Task: structure prediction
Amino acid sequence: MAIDAEDRVLLVRQWRTPASRVLLEIPAGTLDVDESTGVTEDPDRAARRELEEETGYRAGTWRKLAEFWTAPGFASELMHLYLATDLEPAHPDERLGPDEDEHLRLERRPFAQAVKAVEAGEIADAKSIAGLLSVDRMRREGPGLNPAQPLTVPMRTYRATVIEYAMASATVIRRSRASLVFATLFAAAAAWAILSAETVLAIVWIVLAIAFATGLFAFPFALLAAWRYRDRILQETAVGVGPSGFVYRTDTYVGETGWGTFRRIRETGQFLFLDLGPQQLYVPLRVFTREELVEIRRLSAGAGFGPDGRRRSTRGPRGLSPHP
Result:
């Protein structure tokens, strides 16, 4: 079970002769046996090899979930199930490729969609069903995937308001490069209008410069979107924090994101922003007590994030790994 930073499951689509069809499966393979000694390969080692061969990715964090017999009535096949996270692509010159008789096509499915594919019968491979449902059960029953490091800020449930969504969106837009560029251009245009004694035009450019510099130009659009799609955008959300990272849960997503995955964590205005690069999550500060905010700041600093929210190092809180 390989899951990337965007909570997508890595799956391979391949032809299976006994089934007479193409199946969508999690990466897997067989244990090699040394012909000279008869020693069977360590499953931990084989799991890493098979993940790289079939997907081209390596995992920074591994957790063994289970062992199970596939058909104990007539077969001796014992399967070892792992959870692989903190994925990074292997260097092309170093990557282990698939076997000559393997013709694989890599697919990525959001975790929730992959579970639905099991329920719909699209994923019909036993090991894939076992892996997906096992992780899904753990996510639903536990606060996170690392019970050895319990949450120090317990799960807090909230629902953002339309105004909060619009304000958060405006804050994110305000910090974008495009917004700053437009604000600078409008400010320059305002200066030119003032020098040219074009008072009305100068006022228009000044208003636009302020709107882009503050992100307020995005506020009405975000307000309209939040109101129109409030059932999808303003879902009930639960969030908790611990030494491993953040546990984030909605009706359509359940997952834990390690400290090392974030590019930046900062408090701005009334929100806590979690920067994942292509995606930014926000949590209203009202969700936490004053003591819990102090704990989040302590964990953030321990994970190597500076006062400006940028990561200074890759160490985890109190020397722990930043990944769950």
Remarks:
- The longest strand covers residues 57-69.
- Residues 143-148, 314-324 have pLDDT under 50 and may be disordered.
- Residues 8-141 form a domain with the Nucleoside Triphosphate Pyrophosphohydrolase fold (CATH 3.90.79.10).
- The radius of gyration is 25 Å.
